[in-house]
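Hey there, shall we discuss this one?
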Amino acid sequence: MKNPKYRGLKFKIMLQTIGLTLIAAIIGYSIYFILIDGVFQEPFANLMVGLFERLGMQEESAILVYRTIFWKNKTMILTCGFIILYLFSFYLGMSRFTDYLDEISNGIHMIIKESSDMIELSDELQPLESQMNTIKNTLRDREYQALQSEQRKNDLVIYLAHDLKTPLTSIIAYLSLLNESPDMPNEQRAKYTKISLEKSKRLGQLINEFFEITRYNLQNITLEKQKISLNMLLEQLIDEFYPVFQKKNITCKIDIEDEIELFVDAERMARVFDNLFRNAISYSYEGTPIDVFVDRQEDAVRITVRNQGKQIAEHKLNHLFEKFYRLDDARSTNTGGAGLGLAIAKEIVELHGGTIRAESDEIYTQFIVTLPYTA
């Protein structure tokens, strides 16, 4: 709530201040005109004169002292008494506002101690209660997200450590066989050499994953924008992936009508679509196409990368762009990445002022990138 107006509290303070003033005025008036100048005037005077006489004064001297001390200074004495009475009444009245401070202090204590209970304040403090509960829930959500992210990262390190060990063990085993059998048939030697090479490449990929984690955590992305041809960028990337497409019997085609130029960081934007293509390849059914659709609007360009694969559940779609998040199916050694590709892609797209989202149904899964366009 912006600029909360504590109208109830202000109204209550005003009423209490007016009430205390009226009460003190009524009491002071009653003491002055009814008691001192009224029914108790003569008894009070006789009492004070009698007291002075008991102290050894003559009657005339006692009357003179009474008049000098009380009668002539009556106004000043009553004024002081009124002020003392008002301050005492005000002190009693302020006890309610110290209760408000105690409530606020207890609410802050609940935030610090991360209590699961909701903060409840008096009706006059409802705007503050709402803000404190918002802060409390926000801190709790952030802590939960941080714990989740840390847990995913820890799990990832364990997974990658295991994945590093697997190809390394195979490499050592096959190289040992090659070393121990110099007279091994050429066909078998070529087979073992090929396997060792593939495992070495996989090991290199996993090592790059570790470097990626470090770069993602320690390096802020800065853009160096220039005008590029989107058509050429996508075609070059598809050409680079041609061997991978062939291996999985996948075809990839671009549906783009006109030449489109964008003012972007070419290297970073290539990284975005590189990650989207890798993701599409990993989760495509073998022998199915990957389609890229480019739709130019008045002030934006929409690029859709679509593949055919297993449907991704709605609740998983919402987490795809979180760092270190991987689908359960991605645990295979061949396809599993660090869970950073889509997170980095999202950050790059948003730095360019664009958006990225994912959709999935029983047939298609598609990632839609929307970037600002200026003709």
Observations:
- The chain has three domains: 7-113, 144-218, 226-372.
- The longest strand covers residues 300-308.
- The domain at 144-218 is CATH 1.10.287.130 (Helix Hairpins).
- The beta strands are 226-229, 251-255, 261-264, 289-296, 300-308, 355-360, 364-372.
